[in-house]
Amino acid sequence: MNEQTKISPDQVVATVAIKKIGNSSGVILPKDVMARLGLHHGDEFSVTLTSEGGMRLTPRDPHFDKAMEVARRGMKRYRNALAELAK
After folding, report:
1. End-to-end distance of the chain based on CA atoms, in angstroms?
2. 17 near 27, Cβ under 8 Å?
3. What is the pTM of this model?
4. Are residues 85 and 64 in the same domain?
């Protein structure tokens, strides 16, 4: 990793605005930010809300999504047993 791609956790690298795109809204990332993060058009992300009131964007992983769906079904099916184990 070279010096250009190193970004400290709380470093502000750009300010962006939410813009209307057709009937939707979106955030336009500057070209240099996309290059520094290794992003490409069409990349998908998961949005997680943080306890500090912000949000975290993480690259979407279809395998993780499938595993979470299986886990959710198991937690729903074995809800009572899991509640007892949590005591």
Report:
1. 46
2. yes
3. 0.51
4. yes
Please give the chain's pLDDT, 87 residues, in tens: 445 556 676 777 788 899 999 999 998 888 888 888 778 888 888 888 999 888 888 887 778 888 989 999 999 999 999 999 998
| Residue 2 in tokens | 């070279």
For 29, the token pair is 């990332």
Range of the domain at 22: 1-39
- 20, 54: one domain: no
Total number of domains in the chain: 2
Q: How far is CA 82 from CA 44, 63, 66, 69, 75, in A?
A: 33, 24, 21, 17, 7
